[in-house]
Design goal:
It holds the Pfam family PHD. InterPro entries: BAH_dom, BAH_sf, SANT/Myb, Snt2, Zinc_finger_PHD-type_CS, Znf_FYVE_PHD, Znf_PHD, Znf_PHD-finger. This is BAH-domain-containing protein. The chain is 28% helix and 15% strand. By secondary structure, it is α+β, with helices and mostly antiparallel strands. Helix 10 crosses helix 11, helix 11 packs antiparallel against helix 12 and helix 14 crosses helix 15. The longest helix is centred in the middle third of the chain and has 24 residues. It is extended. The protein starts with a helix and ends with a strand. 27% of the residues are buried. The C terminus is likely disordered.
């Protein structure tokens, strides 16, 4: 078998290529059905296209065949494909039978490298057992045709099963086409027995034939005397002359005295089921590569005998007085316009026509315009002269235009022109970066998925303002280069190119990877390193074990799909939670059932709550990601029938930060996640339950329960407020589990060891609510009363003699955390924005004097990272670098400032070098 390169050479030399090797190693032939897929960056995760190979063409002749493909290798072999549509592509709604396709007369020329594998497509009438056929992998069927121009579906009939056509026409159609396309209302007429005119005995086409209601005979409208000009209107019937005379005789002989109208007609016999054409495995008959043609309401049977007759579906011609206007000829239009101009010259404008800018009133015509200012008439010529000058920057440069207007308005035309001519390159505020800095910028844009000015400024050594300005300039230059390449019919390379319309949903601003390949699906797979570093779970079935991880399409919530689910989605266009379409898997399941004998089948275990780990009834299950919790554990208010967790709802609404990272936990969660994996495996655990914060970020339910924060709605356990008001010592010190200093920490209630709440839970330490009998607001839970407070204990400490409840212990439909939140974590005040402002005032009340003193400093830069923006400076270090180094704060504020106020300012959570309220 020749390779793709040799096959391309043969096509270049004019030979007919009958087969070629696809990217996956399979050999494909003409008339094979294949999966076709563009690179991942072009299709955005849409399913494979199913098509039939019409012919192989050389790269030089590809564009002559109407291709839309991009240029690949110069001698790349191309293939002309006949496409099939999926019903979901047409209607946009999900369908129950995802093995059904719609045929089409729609071709596309693409490189052979876009072929991903073989599949099998047959007509429904050529399948003996449709149920068994659909259970076979990679098998599809069709029974309808879709025309993308008329926007209508047609029925597909086998030519052998059509009876009501002239015998000579049927013989020709049988030799050329396997299928006929027709309207739905024509199916019964074509499958009926042969119809002939009762007058001329020739074939009676439905379009120009009427049927007698009494004798059921067919008559050409032109064969009648007098001829009929149109068929009877809807609701009326027609009777031939003989039947009409006989009916009149019957009426006169009083046969119809007690009989209703039409009683003499013979009883209609229900037509039996038509025999289907014999099923055979012979290849479909084709003519010029097409196995079907249109034969319906707008077809003349005699025209189909010609080889040049068009095979496309047709519609009613929109020609005639009902659809077209009577347009004057060009000469008549010129004569009418000349007569109108002559009349205006002879009589002048109407006397009552007001002047523009004036309206009539009781005093005559008065002006309605008040001129406030007029542009200087000399500014336009001056700027034109400036544009013609040879200056170091182009004429459209903003700084050049600004300096030109400023020079004219301040110095005048003559002196201003001298000033502009004397400008040097240093006078213009232009940005120019080196090639190395451009490469760094592009790499950072790909890394962060967009523009992050502060992060990129550290990498390139520029100010964030310069990064923002130059990024837009750089993108415009890249866009100009892409447009030039498009005009030259060349392929545009690069991950940041301006992509046109793709086969799937938009990319939502996310930068695409350079690793996308046209010859394989490598761009749609996660690498081994990425899969090992991330805890990937299948968005369809939830499994965490797979040899290959596919990237999720834009229309599916999640990051990855396992090998069976990802392959099924790309082949069949649906997310199947149970892979029941694979016959091999069904055989394996049936074999395992047979070996179990008469033993009782093992019941499927119920899903457990992610927080309390109880697997009982009444769990709320997210309709998107299958996250399961009790309503009391997670704080679900309202019904749970169509419930969606907050993370999935935000992924659709995009109201909160799309990075679900707890602001109370360390930035690096590898240690607690690794400890959590050692526990009993579960699809979701307590670290998957998160609530939004007032600063549009996220916090674990566990972390928010233990730390001294508040809930805007205690019954819903969120949104979380007051994280920025936590005491300073909460953010200090290192965690005894992960050894990281960032994040909020709590002390062990007995020994004083410091932990992140997530680290303590993952390491197996006790996290609960302590009930103590002391003065304060007391509550009751499980017949115990007292003041309830959260605490963390090392697992080595004994808790005998204490009343300690787990956070999600349940009693009377409430959890311990719910009782604690209702009693102690409510907020004071009615407006969330007002509460946030009050907390900010308390934090910064005594810092303003120090700010006034530091306002004299004009420019500073961190000696470690080079950033020039920081909420506070510490001996040459920005706040973020100082906080990461764990150094004590110098006494740089007046002595009268309280130590607590200084601590509160210095220990706020920092994001990109800025203190934020979370």
């Amino acid at each position: 078998m020749p390779s793709r390169a040799s096959a391309s050479d043969m096509a270049q030399q004019g030979f007919t290529v009958l087969s070629a090797k696809a990217a996956n190693g399979e050999v494909v032939h003409i008339n094979d059905h294949v999966y076709v897929s563009m690179p991942w960056s072009d299709r955005d995760g849409s399913p494979y296209i199913i098509a039939r190979i019409l012919e192989f063409v050389s790269a030089g002749n590809a564009h002559k065949k109407g291709t839309n493909s991009r240029h690949v290798a110069k001698n790349e072999l191309h293939v002309r494909l006949s496409l099939y549509y999926r019903p979901s592509d047409i209607s946009g709604r999900p369908v129950s039978d995802f093995r059904q396709l719609l045929a089409a007369i729609h071709t596309l020329v693409e490189p052979v490298s876009v072929i991903r594998g073989k599949c099998y497509v047959r007509h429904k009438d050529k399948i003996e057992n449709l149920i068994a056929y659909k259970q076979t992998p990679d098998h599809f069927y069709f029974s309808k045709f879709y025309d993308p121009y008329i926007k209508r579906e047609y029925e597909v009939l086998r030519t052998a099963s059509v009876n009501n056509i002239p015998p000579d026409v049927k013989a020709v159609l049988l030799r050329r086409y396997e299928y006929l396309l027709t309207e739905k209302e024509m199916v019964a007429d074509l499958l009926d027995d042969y119809h002939s005119c009762a007058v001329c005995a020739r074939w009676a086409a439905a379009q120009d034939t009427v049927r007698c209601e009494l004798c059921r005979g067919f008559f050409h409208m032109a064969c009648l005397t007098p001829p009929l000009s149109a068929k009877p209107a809807k609701g009326y019937s027609w009777a031939c002359l003989g039947c009409t005379i006989q009916r009149r005789r019957d009426v006169e002989s009083e046969k119809y005295r007690f009989v209703s109208n039409g009683g003499s007609a013979p009883p209609r016999v229900k037509a039996g089921k038509k025999e289907r054409a014999a099923i055979s495995d012979t290849p479909d008959v084709q003519f010029r590569g097409w196995p079907w043609r249109y034969f319906g309401l707008h077809t003349r049977a005699e025209d189909t005998l010609s080889e040049e007759d068009l095979i496309f579906p047709r519609a009613v011609t929109r020609v005639g007085p009902k659809y077209t206007a009577n347009v004057l000829t060009w000469e008549e239009q010129q004569a009418a316009e000349a007569a109108k101009q002559d009349a205006l010259r002879a009589h002048g404008p109407p006397a009552d026509l007001p002047e523009r800018g004036f309206d009539p009133d009781e005093n005559g015509y008065a002006t309605t315009l008040t001129v406030l200012s007029k542009p200087d008439p000399g500014l336009g010529p001056f700027m034109d002269a400036v544009a013609r000058l040879a200056l170091p920057v182009p004429p459209y440069d903003i700084s050049r235009l600004d300096k030109g207007v400023h020079a004219y308005m301040t110095l005048g035309a003559t002196a201003g022109m001298k000033r502009i001519k004397a400008l040097k390159p240093a006078d213009f505020d232009s940005l120019s970066w080196s090639a190395a800095e451009d490469a760094t910028l592009e790499a950072e844009l790909t890394k962060y998925g967009g523009l992050d000015a502060h992060a990129i400024s550290k990498a390139v050594g520029k100010r964030p303002a310069e990064v923002v300005r130059y990024t837009f300039k750089w993108r415009n230059l890249r866009l100009k280069t892409e447009n030039d390449l498009i005009r030259q019919h060349r392929k545009v390379h690069g991950a940041h190119r301006h992509n046109g319309k793709t086969l799937g949903p938009p990319a939502l601003g996310k930068m695409r990877s350079r690793a996308d390949s046209e010859a394989s699906d490598e761009g749609s797979l996660y690498g081994a390193a990425h899969a090992a570093a991330q805890r990937l779970s299948c968005a369809a079935c939830g499994t965490r074990a797979s040899a290959v991880w596919w990237k999720c399409p834009r229309s599916v919530q999640g990051a990855a799909m396992c090998e069976p689910c990802g392959s099924n989605y790309r082949k069949y266009g649906v997310i199947s939670f149970v892979k029941s379409d694979d016959a091999k898997q069904k055989k394996d399941v049936r074999r395992r059932k047979d070996t179990s004998g008469a033993s009782t089948p093992v019941p499927v275990p119920r899903a457990a709550c992610a927080l309390c780990r109880r697997a009982d009834k009444g769990l709320a299950r997210c309709k998107t990601c299958t996250f399961s919790v009790h309503a009391a554990c997670y704080g679900i208010v309202g019904g749970t029938a169509e419930w969606e967790c907050e993370l999935c709802a935000n992924a659709r609404a995009e109201e909160v930060n799309l990075d679900p990272r707890c602001v109370l936990c360390p930035a690096d969660m590898s240690v607690p996640l690794a400890l959590a994996r050692k526990k009993k495996p579960a699809d979701f655990d307590a670290l998957a339950a998160m609530k939004r914060t007032e600063g549009c970020r996220w916090a674990h339910v566990l972390c928010a329960a233990v730390h001294d924060v508040a809930y805007a709605h205690p019954a819903a356990l969120g949104p979380v407020e007051g994280i920025g008001s936590l005491p300073a010592h909460t953010w200090r010190g290192a965690c005894d589990v992960c050894a990281r200093a960032d994040g909020a920490k709590v002390d062990c209630a007995d020994c004083g060891a410091r932990y992140h709440v997530a680290c303590a839970w993952a390491a197996g330490h006790r996290v609960g609510l302590h009930m103590a009998a002391r003065r304060g607001h007391s509550v009751r839970f499980r017949d115990e009363g007292g003041v309830m407070a959260p605490a963390v204990w090392c697992r080595s400490h004994g808790l005998e003699g204490r009343v300690v409840f787990e956070l999600f212990d349940e009693a009377d439909g409430q959890t311990a955390l719910g009782v604690y939140a209702q009693a102690y974590k409510g907020v004071q005040g009615g407006f969330a924005l007002l509460r946030k402002a009050q907390r900010l005032d308390r934090i910064h009340a005594e810092d303003r004097e120090g700010w006034e003193e530091e306002r004299e400093v004009v420019e500073r830069a961190c000696t470690a990272c080079g950033v020039d923006v920081s909420p506070r400076w510490h001996q040459g270090l920005c706040h973020q670098c100082w906080f990461a180094a764990g150094k004590p704060a110098p006494p740089s504020v007046p002595a009268k400032r309280k130590a607590e106020a200084m601590d509160d300012v210095e220990t706020k959570p920092v994001v990109n070098g800025r203190a934020v309220l979370v």
